[in-house]
Design goal:
This protein has 51 residues and is mainly alpha-helical. The protein contains three helices and no strands. Helix 1 runs antiparallel to helix 2.
Length: 51
């Protein structure tokens, strides 16, 4: 089953706000930063380091 990235980001953000209750701006920064990082050149380096 393929889940669109935007849907996964929204679900993770909603769960984080409901369960952990951090400031909303912190959740937004972390999710946006992770999304942008996944689309950058650094993602290949991280992927190689994990594998």
């Amino acid at each position: 089953m393929d889940v669109p990235l935007w849907l996964a980001v929204i679900v993770i953000g909603a769960l984080a706000l409901k369960l952990i209750r951090p400031p909303w701006w912190l959740v937004a920064v972390l999710l946006l930063g992770g999304y942008l990082l996944a689309d950058s050149l650094i993602s290949t380096v991280i992927d190689a380091a994990i594998k």
